[in-house]
Amino acid sequence: MYENEELPATLEWYKDQIAGHHPSVVKNGIRQIGIVKERGKEQNLLKLVQDGMRGISEVQFYDSIFQKDQSNHTKAQAVALEGLRNFVPHYFGKRVIEIASRSYEFIELEDITYPFKKPCIMDIKIGKVTYDPDASEDKKYTESIKCPHQKEFGFRILGYRLHPDEKGQVRVQDKNWGRTRTPENIQAAFNDYFQAIPTPKLKSDAIKIFRKELSKISEW
Protein backbone atom coordinates (compact mmCIF):
# COMPACT_ATOMS: atom_id res chain seq x y z
CA MET A 1 0.00 0.00 0.00
CA TYR A 2 1.15 3.57 -0.61
CA GLU A 3 2.60 5.59 2.25
CA ASN A 4 -0.31 8.04 2.36
CA GLU A 5 -3.01 5.35 2.39
CA GLU A 6 -4.79 4.09 5.49
CA LEU A 7 -6.07 0.71 6.58
CA PRO A 8 -9.86 0.31 6.36
CA ALA A 9 -11.75 1.01 9.57
CA THR A 10 -12.25 -2.74 10.12
CA LEU A 11 -8.49 -3.35 10.44
CA GLU A 12 -5.67 -2.18 12.68
CA TRP A 13 -1.91 -2.79 12.75
CA TYR A 14 -0.68 -5.52 15.09
CA LYS A 15 1.17 -3.45 17.67
CA ASP A 16 3.41 -6.24 18.96
CA GLN A 17 4.97 -7.20 15.61
CA ILE A 18 8.76 -7.38 15.95
CA ALA A 19 10.22 -8.33 12.58
CA GLY A 20 9.11 -9.35 9.11
CA HIS A 21 7.32 -6.93 6.79
CA HIS A 22 6.81 -4.11 9.27
CA PRO A 23 4.44 -1.19 8.52
CA SER A 24 7.06 1.27 9.81
CA VAL A 25 9.19 0.40 6.75
CA VAL A 26 8.49 2.54 3.69
CA LYS A 27 10.46 2.03 0.46
CA ASN A 28 9.93 4.24 -2.60
CA GLY A 29 6.63 5.44 -1.16
CA ILE A 30 5.33 1.91 -0.55
CA ARG A 31 4.48 0.90 3.02
CA GLN A 32 5.05 -2.74 3.91
CA ILE A 33 2.08 -4.76 5.10
CA GLY A 34 2.93 -7.42 7.62
CA ILE A 35 0.45 -8.43 10.31
CA VAL A 36 -2.92 -6.78 10.95
CA LYS A 37 -5.86 -7.49 13.22
CA GLU A 38 -9.54 -7.37 12.39
CA ARG A 39 -11.58 -5.34 14.85
CA GLY A 40 -13.97 -7.61 16.70
CA LYS A 41 -11.75 -10.68 16.12
CA GLU A 42 -8.78 -9.66 18.26
CA GLN A 43 -8.05 -13.31 19.10
CA ASN A 44 -6.77 -13.85 15.53
CA LEU A 45 -4.11 -12.34 13.28
CA LEU A 46 -4.06 -11.67 9.55
CA LYS A 47 -0.64 -12.21 7.97
CA LEU A 48 -0.05 -11.03 4.42
CA VAL A 49 0.81 -13.79 1.94
CA GLN A 50 4.14 -12.83 0.40
CA ASP A 51 4.74 -12.77 -3.33
CA GLY A 52 6.36 -15.71 -5.10
CA MET A 53 7.32 -19.14 -3.81
CA ARG A 54 7.81 -17.99 -0.22
CA GLY A 55 4.12 -17.10 0.08
CA ILE A 56 3.00 -20.22 -1.79
CA SER A 57 5.15 -22.42 0.46
CA GLU A 58 3.81 -20.82 3.65
CA VAL A 59 0.20 -21.41 2.60
CA GLN A 60 0.97 -25.00 1.58
CA PHE A 61 2.68 -25.53 4.94
CA TYR A 62 -0.40 -24.56 6.95
CA ASP A 63 -2.80 -26.27 4.55
CA SER A 64 -0.91 -29.56 4.87
CA ILE A 65 -0.92 -29.42 8.68
CA PHE A 66 -4.57 -28.49 9.17
CA GLN A 67 -6.32 -30.21 6.27
CA LYS A 68 -8.85 -32.76 7.48
CA ASP A 69 -8.32 -35.19 4.64
CA GLN A 70 -4.89 -36.78 5.12
CA SER A 71 -5.51 -39.58 2.61
CA ASN A 72 -2.75 -38.30 0.32
CA HIS A 73 -0.18 -38.85 3.07
CA THR A 74 1.29 -42.05 4.46
CA LYS A 75 0.34 -42.98 8.01
CA ALA A 76 3.75 -41.83 9.25
CA GLN A 77 3.37 -38.48 7.48
CA ALA A 78 -0.12 -37.99 8.90
CA VAL A 79 1.14 -38.69 12.44
CA ALA A 80 4.05 -36.28 11.95
CA LEU A 81 1.75 -33.53 10.69
CA GLU A 82 -0.64 -34.06 13.58
CA GLY A 83 2.28 -33.70 16.00
CA LEU A 84 3.49 -30.55 14.27
CA ARG A 85 0.05 -29.02 14.73
CA ASN A 86 0.80 -28.74 18.46
CA PHE A 87 3.67 -26.31 17.82
CA VAL A 88 2.01 -23.77 15.52
CA PRO A 89 -0.90 -21.35 15.94
CA HIS A 90 -4.27 -22.58 14.73
CA TYR A 91 -4.88 -21.86 11.05
CA PHE A 92 -8.23 -20.65 9.73
CA GLY A 93 -7.43 -20.53 6.02
CA LYS A 94 -6.94 -17.70 3.55
CA ARG A 95 -8.77 -14.39 3.32
CA VAL A 96 -8.88 -11.82 0.53
CA ILE A 97 -9.21 -8.29 1.94
CA GLU A 98 -9.50 -5.00 0.10
CA ILE A 99 -7.17 -2.22 1.20
CA ALA A 100 -7.25 1.11 -0.62
CA SER A 101 -9.18 -0.41 -3.56
CA ARG A 102 -6.65 -3.23 -4.01
CA SER A 103 -7.12 -6.88 -3.03
CA TYR A 104 -4.58 -8.56 -0.77
CA GLU A 105 -4.41 -12.21 0.28
CA PHE A 106 -3.87 -13.02 3.95
CA ILE A 107 -3.69 -16.14 6.06
CA GLU A 108 -5.71 -16.04 9.27
CA LEU A 109 -3.94 -17.41 12.35
CA GLU A 110 -4.62 -17.69 16.05
CA ASP A 111 -2.96 -14.91 18.07
CA ILE A 112 -1.26 -16.97 20.76
CA THR A 113 -0.44 -13.79 22.72
CA TYR A 114 -4.11 -12.76 22.97
CA PRO A 115 -4.72 -14.21 26.48
CA PHE A 116 -1.86 -12.12 27.91
CA LYS A 117 -2.33 -8.53 29.06
CA LYS A 118 1.40 -7.74 28.75
CA PRO A 119 2.95 -10.34 26.43
CA CYS A 120 6.74 -10.54 26.30
CA ILE A 121 7.72 -11.73 22.84
CA MET A 122 11.04 -12.80 21.33
CA ASP A 123 11.09 -13.49 17.59
CA ILE A 124 13.46 -16.34 16.67
CA LYS A 125 14.03 -18.01 13.31
CA ILE A 126 14.89 -21.66 13.88
CA GLY A 127 17.34 -23.28 11.49
CA LYS A 128 20.93 -23.01 10.32
CA VAL A 129 19.90 -21.22 7.11
CA THR A 130 16.93 -18.99 6.24
CA TYR A 131 17.10 -18.93 2.45
CA ASP A 132 15.09 -21.14 0.10
CA PRO A 133 16.71 -24.33 -1.26
CA ASP A 134 16.56 -22.93 -4.80
CA ALA A 135 17.98 -19.51 -3.84
CA SER A 136 20.73 -18.04 -6.00
CA GLU A 137 24.32 -18.04 -4.77
CA ASP A 138 24.11 -14.26 -4.32
CA LYS A 139 21.01 -14.65 -2.13
CA LYS A 140 22.66 -17.38 -0.07
CA TYR A 141 25.69 -15.18 0.49
CA THR A 142 23.62 -12.12 1.37
CA GLU A 143 21.60 -14.09 3.93
CA SER A 144 24.66 -15.80 5.43
CA ILE A 145 26.45 -12.53 6.23
CA LYS A 146 23.40 -11.05 7.96
CA CYS A 147 23.94 -13.36 10.92
CA PRO A 148 27.41 -14.97 10.71
CA HIS A 149 26.86 -17.26 13.70
CA GLN A 150 23.48 -18.68 12.64
CA LYS A 151 24.92 -21.98 11.42
CA GLU A 152 26.70 -22.37 14.75
CA PHE A 153 23.66 -21.45 16.87
CA GLY A 154 21.02 -23.17 14.75
CA PHE A 155 18.77 -20.10 15.08
CA ARG A 156 18.66 -16.33 14.58
CA ILE A 157 17.19 -13.78 17.00
CA LEU A 158 15.14 -11.09 15.24
CA GLY A 159 14.43 -9.05 18.36
CA TYR A 160 12.10 -8.84 21.33
CA ARG A 161 9.36 -6.66 22.79
CA LEU A 162 8.77 -6.51 26.54
CA HIS A 163 5.68 -4.73 27.79
CA PRO A 164 5.83 -1.80 30.20
CA ASP A 165 8.14 -1.99 33.19
CA GLU A 166 7.51 -0.15 36.46
CA LYS A 167 8.29 3.13 34.66
CA GLY A 168 5.81 2.40 31.87
CA GLN A 169 8.52 1.86 29.27
CA VAL A 170 8.25 -0.74 26.50
CA ARG A 171 11.64 -2.39 25.98
CA VAL A 172 12.38 -3.27 22.37
CA GLN A 173 15.30 -4.73 20.41
CA ASP A 174 15.22 -5.22 16.64
CA LYS A 175 16.86 -7.46 14.03
CA ASN A 176 19.97 -5.27 13.86
CA TRP A 177 20.57 -6.00 17.53
CA GLY A 178 19.92 -9.69 16.85
CA ARG A 179 22.54 -9.76 14.11
CA THR A 180 25.20 -8.68 16.59
CA ARG A 181 24.71 -11.80 18.72
CA THR A 182 27.92 -13.83 19.04
CA PRO A 183 28.99 -16.87 21.07
CA GLU A 184 30.22 -14.38 23.67
CA ASN A 185 26.96 -12.46 24.11
CA ILE A 186 24.18 -14.84 23.05
CA GLN A 187 23.46 -15.79 26.68
CA ALA A 188 23.13 -12.12 27.56
CA ALA A 189 20.47 -11.80 24.85
CA PHE A 190 18.25 -14.29 26.65
CA ASN A 191 19.02 -12.68 30.01
CA ASP A 192 17.78 -9.42 28.49
CA TYR A 193 14.56 -11.11 27.42
CA PHE A 194 13.93 -12.56 30.88
CA GLN A 195 14.54 -9.21 32.61
CA ALA A 196 10.77 -8.62 32.80
CA ILE A 197 10.39 -11.49 35.28
CA PRO A 198 10.46 -9.91 38.76
CA THR A 199 12.06 -12.66 40.89
CA PRO A 200 14.79 -15.30 40.43
CA LYS A 201 12.32 -18.05 41.41
CA LEU A 202 9.81 -17.05 38.73
CA LYS A 203 12.61 -16.72 36.20
CA SER A 204 13.85 -20.22 36.99
CA ASP A 205 10.32 -21.62 36.67
CA ALA A 206 9.83 -19.88 33.32
CA ILE A 207 13.11 -21.23 31.95
CA LYS A 208 12.13 -24.77 32.96
CA ILE A 209 8.86 -24.42 31.04
CA PHE A 210 10.71 -23.06 27.99
CA ARG A 211 13.16 -25.98 28.06
CA LYS A 212 10.34 -28.49 28.44
CA GLU A 213 8.46 -27.07 25.45
CA LEU A 214 11.62 -26.88 23.33
CA SER A 215 12.44 -30.50 24.14
CA LYS A 216 9.05 -31.50 22.72
CA ILE A 217 9.96 -29.85 19.42
CA SER A 218 13.35 -31.56 19.46
CA GLU A 219 11.73 -34.94 20.08
CA TRP A 220 9.25 -34.37 17.25
Description:
- By secondary structure, the chain is of the alpha+beta class.
- It folds into two domains: 11-110, no CATH class; 121-219, Inositol polyphosphate kinase (D-amino Acid Aminotransferase, Chain A, domain 1).
- The chain is built from seven helices and ten strands.
- The strands form three sheets. Strands 1-4-5-7-6 form a five-stranded antiparallel β-sheet, with helices on one face. A three-stranded antiparallel β-sheet has the order 8-9-10. It has a two-stranded antiparallel sheet with strand order 2-3.
- Strand 4 (35-38) and strand 5 form a beta hairpin.
- The radius of gyration is 19 Å and the shape is globular.
- 12% of the residues are buried.
Topology of this structure?
Layout: E1 11-13, E2 26-27, E3 30-31, E4 35-38, E5 44-48, H1 52-66, H2 75-84, E6 91-99, E7 102-110, E8 121-126, H3 137-146, H4 150-153, E9 155-162, E10 171-173, H5 175-179, H6 186-193, H7 200-219
Antiparallel strand pairs: 1-4, 2-3, 4-5, 5-7, 6-7, 8-9, 9-10
Give a summary of the structure in a few sentences.
Helix content is 33%, strand content 23%. It has 220 residues and is an alpha+beta fold. Strands 1-4-5-7-6 form a five-stranded antiparallel sheet, with helices on one face.
Described by the principal axes of the CA atoms, the overall outline is: globular
Record field, number of beta strands: 10
Strand order of the largest sheet: 1-4-5-7-6
End-to-end gap: 40 Å
Please report which band the strand proportion falls in: under 5%, 5-15%, 15-25%, 25-35%, 35-45% or over 45%.
15-25%
Give the low-confidence spans.
none
For the sheet with most strands, the description reads:
5 strands, antiparallel
* Sequence of secondary-structure elements: EEEEEHHEEEHHEEHHH
Provide the gyration radius in Å.
19 Å
What is the total domain count? 2
**SS-based structural class?**
alpha+beta
Query: Which percent range fits the helix content?
Result: 25-40%
Integer average pLDDT: 88
Pfam families: IPK
Family: Belongs to the inositol phosphokinase (IPK) family.
Enzyme class: transferase
Protein name: Kinase
